[in-house]
Amino acid sequence: MGCCNRRCGLLAGAVFGAVVAVLGGILIPVGDMIIENTVKKEAVIEPGTTAYDNWVATGAAVYRQFWFFDVKNPQQVVEAGAPPEVQERGPYTYKTRFLPKANISINTNNTASFLLPMGAIFEPSMSVGPEEDEVTSLNLAVAGAYSLVPPTMHIALEVLIKATNSSLFQKRAVKELLWGYDDPILKDTIGLFSPYNDTYDGYYNVFNGKDDISKVGIIDRWRGEKKLSFWNDEYCDMINGTDASSFPPFLDKKIPLFFFSSDICRSVSASYEATLNLKGIEVYRYGLLPSTLASPVDNPDNKCFCRNHKTTKNCTLAGVLDISSCSDGRPVYISLPHFLNGSASLREDVLGLNPNEEHHKTFLEVEPTTGFTLNFAKRIQVNMMYGPSKVITVLKKVKNYTLFPLAWLNETAMLDDETADMFKRELTSRIQMLEIIQQVLLIAGVIIFVLCLISYVCVRRKDKAIHA
């Protein structure tokens, strides 16, 4: 009778172990379903959700660091036609994106609309010097007017340059070059980012994800339009993806992320590069491909971004984007810092440049379950063109059309420790705990089942031997 009870107990133990293992196995899809439903609920952009609170106001501090290219030989360039030799100076750092989104409305068609306020506050502790530091840089008015007016107007431009005692280069304070100064030639305020403070980007209209979470954050309209009007081409004028602050949840490494940047007036894509640990949180790093600013020769998709065959060497120049059509006609060219991934001629025309993949590429680090961007670095260089002239004195010795790098910026933001702890507490730790419970139940159940089953077989053989 005792042997029977012992065998029955071991069988019961095996059954119990099997039930525990099955429970652990069942928890895997059930747990995944719980996580998925929770994320879908909290990722919707509407009051009361986690996504909405983070969406309205950026939790992490966003900074723009600026590096300027100080010309060391301005006189030799003008008088002897030497290539400009530059030295990088910076960073000069400003806090940006410190204001919450404005004029927010949740619309009946499952979209949310808003304006993005623009502002910059100088951060001396994160800068190499005060914003009153002076830099020798390209004269924006001279280069701009040269690019905009036809050669028949060069005589008038020459008169203005001489009357105002201007030259191809000028010495200006950092804050003047960035945010504006009164120019004697144009009789107006000009600067690389003028006007900026107290202005807005948008309106943006984005899907809030309530009816389809796979569309959350994706831009439906910008400035009231579903497509751009800068490139006169259906492909190049597409508005794809989000604004890069977040993406639809449940990322797939094989699928690129698309986002629109008003700074460069176009949409771009970023591809998965690596899985990293950011303050205890697993993130996917995405980076722009070199083909993003490749010449149409290497990337035919970029053909519609080539607008000036003369200055782009018949559209064979790689690494630059002419954004004059979306910058109020100003002859501005965008590139990666130090012409990273650009044609070699760009660095031959301007000496002192040293592109570096680690310091000059743009990347995003996104938490794959929620789609929230937790760390990013957007790096852009602003350039202007100047070239030879038979009439304008300061350009008579210039031999070639030259894309001059004025400054490059690094816009960055990383979640702080407090936000990281909250993120881990509210999401990561719960997912990890659920995974641990699943694994413990599954492993413990299998071990109990196997041990009880082996013990049962051993006891049964022993009982048979005794009765034999």
Summarize the structure.
With 468 residues, the chain is of the alpha+beta class. Helix content is 30%, strand content 28%.
Question: SSE layout and pairings?
Answer:
Layout: H1 2-42, H2 50-56, E1 62-71, H3 74-80, E2 86-96, E3 102-106, E4 111-118, E5 120-122, E6 134-138, H4 140-148, H5 154-163, E7 169-173, H6 174-179, E8 181-183, E9 188-190, E10 199-207, E11 219-222, E12 257-261, E13 266-278, E14 281-288, E15 320-322, E16 332-335, H7 344-349, H8 357-360, E17 363-366, E18 373-386, E19 402-414, H9 417-467
Antiparallel strand pairs: 1-2, 1-19, 2-5, 3-4, 4-10, 6-7, 8-9, 10-11, 12-13, 13-14, 14-17, 15-16, 16-18, 17-18, 18-19
Describe the structure.
By secondary structure, the protein is α+β, with helices and mostly antiparallel strands. It folds into two domains: 72 residues; 306 residues, no CATH class. It has nine helices and 19 strands. The strands form four sheets. Strands 1, 2, 5, 12, 13, 14, 15, 16, 17, 18 and 19 form an eleven-stranded antiparallel beta sheet that branches. Strand 3 and strand 4 form a beta hairpin. Helix 1 runs antiparallel to helix 9. The model has no long low-confidence stretch (mean pLDDT 87).
Separation of the first and last Cα atoms: 17 Å
Sheet with the most strands? 11 strands, antiparallel
Overall, the morphology is elongated
Helix content class: 25-40%
Strand elements, count: 19
Q: Which stretches are low in confidence, meaning pLDDT under 50 for 5 or more residues running? A: none
Tally of discrete structural domains: 2
Q: Would you tell me the overall average pLDDT?
A: 87
Rg is 30 Å
Portion in strands? 25-35%
Structure annotation, total helices: 9
What is the succession of H and E elements?
A: HHEHEEEEEHHEHEEEEEEEEEHHEEEH
The structure class reads: alpha+beta
